[in-house]
From TrEMBL, chains A, B:
<feature type="domain" description="Creatinase N-terminal">
    <location>
        <begin position="8"/>
        <end position="138"/>
    </location>
</feature>
<feature type="region of interest" description="Disordered">
    <location>
        <begin position="187"/>
        <end position="211"/>
    </location>
</feature>
<dbReference type="InterPro" id="IPR000587">
    <property type="entry name" value="Creatinase_N"/>
</dbReference>
<keyword id="KW-0645">Protease</keyword>
<dbReference type="GO" id="GO:0102009">
    <property type="term" value="F:proline dipeptidase activity"/>
</dbReference>
<dbReference type="InterPro" id="IPR029149">
    <property type="entry name" value="Creatin/AminoP/Spt16_N"/>
</dbReference>
<dbReference type="InterPro" id="IPR050659">
    <property type="entry name" value="Peptidase_M24B"/>
</dbReference>
<dbReference type="InterPro" id="IPR036005">
    <property type="entry name" value="Creatinase/aminopeptidase-like"/>
</dbReference>
<dbReference type="Pfam" id="PF01321">
    <property type="entry name" value="Creatinase_N"/>
</dbReference>
<keyword id="KW-0378">Hydrolase</keyword>
<dbReference type="Pfam" id="PF00557">
    <property type="entry name" value="Peptidase_M24"/>
</dbReference>
<feature type="compositionally biased region" description="Basic and acidic residues">
    <location>
        <begin position="60"/>
        <end position="73"/>
    </location>
</feature>
<feature type="domain" description="Peptidase M24">
    <location>
        <begin position="146"/>
        <end position="348"/>
    </location>
</feature>
<protein>
    <submittedName>
        <fullName>Proline dipeptidase</fullName>
        <ecNumber>3.4.13.9</ecNumber>
    </submittedName>
</protein>
<feature type="region of interest" description="Disordered">
    <location>
        <begin position="57"/>
        <end position="85"/>
    </location>
</feature>
<keyword id="KW-0224">Dipeptidase</keyword>
<dbReference type="InterPro" id="IPR000994">
    <property type="entry name" value="Pept_M24"/>
</dbReference>
Amino acid sequence: MSEVYAARRTRLRERCNAGGSAAALVSRPANVRYLAGAAPHGAVLLLGRTEDLLVCSGSPDDRPTQGRPDESLPVRALSGPGGDPAVAATDLAADQGAESLATEDHHLTVVRHRAMRSVAPALRLTDLGQAVEQLRVVKDEEEISCLRIGAEIADQALGELLESILVGRTERHLALELERRLVDHGADGPAFPTSVGTGPNSGRRGHRPTDRRVEEGDFLSVCLGATYRGYRCEIGRTFVIGTSPADWQIELYDLVFSAQRAGREALAPGAACRDVDRAARQPLDSAGYAEHLPALTGHGVGLEIDEDPQLAPAAMGKLDACVPVTVEPGVHLPGRGGVRIDDTLVVRPEADGGPELLTITTKELLAL
Amino acid sequence: MSEVYAARRTRLRERCNAGGSAAALVSRPANVRYLAGAAPHGAVLLLGRTEDLLVCSGSPDDRPTQGRPDESLPVRALSGPGGDPAVAATDLAADQGAESLATEDHHLTVVRHRAMRSVAPALRLTDLGQAVEQLRVVKDEEEISCLRIGAEIADQALGELLESILVGRTERHLALELERRLVDHGADGPAFPTSVGTGPNSGRRGHRPTDRRVEEGDFLSVCLGATYRGYRCEIGRTFVIGTSPADWQIELYDLVFSAQRAGREALAPGAACRDVDRAARQPLDSAGYAEHLPALTGHGVGLEIDEDPQLAPAAMGKLDACVPVTVEPGVHLPGRGGVRIDDTLVVRPEADGGPELLTITTKELLAL
């Protein structure tokens, strides 16, 4: 694996050099993990003029490392607690004779940036921008394989829940049970707080589980994901409780299902992100639900649950092959509830069979 | 409750005015919640020259609000998604005729700060520093009552776990079960990721649960906490599995117990934080465990699990009455395991009975 990380650092270094900086300091934890294999709490990665270094806090209390560190990368631990690895790394960059250092200004606080400036006043600090996030958008097959395993785990956890009795249980309990099952099946943990919504809460994006109990006739919507080796996937499904869904429930479900299918079918290398969004949004818009729609209908996933690209009306850019995204349109009607259907897929060319669906739980309307 | 938040804002305003700023922008979520009753995702609080405003993101996707907002506080929601409430609030401050605006430079990123500067170039941005964190250190009785309920919930969850069979279960399962029980008993959720360590993992601060199973003869250490109405408490205990603890286990336990008691007994209004730390650290130091000790032996708790004050060798400042802190010395011996005992207490004057223990689970060495 060590070569993978070294190759990623080489690509970043090429970008920095092209931008006029010989050195860069990466501080955002997911970016550190991407380039170094692991992100010990507070650690930063210095791409120096003469060597790369992982600079770690000196506090013995820090949470254990997540991930396996690239063993070819030298590690420098601060000698005592309380020091800031970003400040120490800035000092090291100056020692290596760098004239400028590119930093993650979207992650560093003003106070840390100020401390970095004052430790090496002669060093010019420039903005690295989202260069690492951009490198992270297209995944390699190793990364996709982690997402695939995470999706299998989420499918299993959801499948088991569906076999149990649901009526009378609270949203909170169902969410906790799903999270326990994720871990049972080998997840590092949930990819994000599991959302379970019943009745009027169904179909709300990011709904936090309450003490409301599942009742006959409810819509039940569930959104969960597993983290596996750091990679986070997402699945969302909506079910109906009881033997015979009401007409409005069947109609709304069919509508969201067709919108979600249109979004999935629009995924292709070269497709504009806003066109994918439009494909998923348009059927709901036409049916008169414009004001009940979320701001985005999908997003990238990876080491974070909410990555680039965004599938939204104002999104710029096009999809590439090997980009994993969610497609998750939904409608929530205040007071009544709603439907949300959410899959994680990998963009693949037509010749390879088109988009690869990672979350394979059925999207038929199940009456439970 | 509305008056409580208004009074807090008045105190902050007085500090700002004394510092030469007529307006302040609070962006750190726990600080927003402290001053406004609730912190909708991304919201910032403007203490303006003419009025206070809670400025919220315009995205309909944002996670529902935690806490109950102060209804006397006007709310301004941005009209569309994608806008930054901090930038909008800066603009509003300039509209109100403020000449300078104090901002939380330890929370704002360089990129946001730059955007705020460019939206109102004539406005002087100054650093508010940790003014709100300082206001938060001393709690009122309402806040302490939330911590007390949270501690009761954590005690209950832990007590129930101790009645179940432990041998053969994994650290991960025990941690998940504790978190489920916290929620069962009315917690908003866990106050931090529950830590369960067995055998060689016991006694490690912040240990992340693994698949190791509890075995006869193990030390088992558990650290958990409940969040109740936003307030977070912490309890840690170490047990021994099986009928007869080994001599080294009894000795180590007695030592950590006496250190923790010394720390608790040192809590008093006016006591220097470093003296409390020394009281808890010194027995372990003298017994030869200096290099196995954590960087701090306790810390404040409240809306965040790790607040000021810190109980550490280099800590400045003194304790006040009504400051809740943890006292949590521990020793971890690599390869063998260790002991950690952790309580949440409120500093109270001698005349009121001395420190108030919130986490009342026994600290006898239980053999389970």
